[in-house]
Design brief:
Number of helices: 14
Helix content: 40-55%
Distance between the termini: 23 Å
Number of strands: 12
Structural class: alpha/beta
Radius of gyration: 23 Å
Length: 365
Amino acid sequence: MALKCGIVGLPNVGKSTLFNCLSNAKAQAANFPFCTIEPNVGTITVPDERLNKLAELVNPERILPTTIEIVDIAGLVKGASKGEGLGNQFLGNIRECDAIIHVLRCFEDGNVVHVDGNVNPVRDKDVIDMELQLKDLETLQKRADKIRKQAQVGDKDSKKLFDIYEKYRLHLEMGKSARSAEIDEKERELTSDLYLLTNKPVMYVCNVDESSVVNGNALVDQVKEAVKDENAEVLVLGVGIEADIASLDTFEERQMFLEDLGLEQAGVSKLINSAYRLLNLKTYFTAGVKEVRAWTILEGFKAPQAAGVIHTDFEKGFIRAEVIGYDDYIQYKSESAVKDAGKLHIEGKEYVVKDGDVMHFRFNV
């Protein structure tokens, strides 16, 4: 499933350095606005210790983790909603992403120029939010104009849509993003084709210096206060430090570096897992001597849909799924032992796949 998280932020906040830590793709980063012109796309492995534990038991020929795509999007400045700078390109790139990783500069460094002259992460957040909100207002205006007459003469469907557009419009005009509007699920479904930029789920990454990577700092506290009503995760991460960690050759060297800093794991690992959750993704596994593999599904997928991730024929000809809970597999240490213990379940088309399920599909095409 090619779901994408877009990394956004003002120029020089650490976006491209973060992207380079996450991916082998190397952006031509430089210390000036619009340092990234074309969005760089990296396919990122999602760390999952469960996959390793299954592989230890099965001893397969190969191990295949699940992945997500991360997109490094051009830096934005005021006026993007009107096409200033690379504004149109920036907004188009965000529209193609499923979720947003918003990087905010929470460190002082006189050697790194800030596009607005001084460090203020809340102001930086507001700049991007405003540009996205203005673009969403433009989208709503165009749609409302198309159905206004039908709504006024009593067309029920048009009136319903127009009323939802108005809810969004009033909310956005208050300087708030669409994701926090009081719109119920049915209304969101009816207007999903709007593809509002501020409806996308968001995570804030506070880029800090080495002294703040464990406990944060006053700038991080300001961000947390500013986003407390958004139900969004705030991740504290030292992008420069992550680059140093990524440059080390061995796992042991990286672990020693982390221990010296008082960290249990690299920030990029936390970020990847958080991005996976942000996209509303879950993982199920297939386990055999040929391969142990993690598969990505959306939360709520039923067994045939999960089978279709492997191949469309699996979904079309779905008969049943043989399911082992991850904990049961680890406890009994083999598929045969799980069967002997009566812990293998046969599930049909209505079974909702659980995160961590180990599955075999039976199908006929």
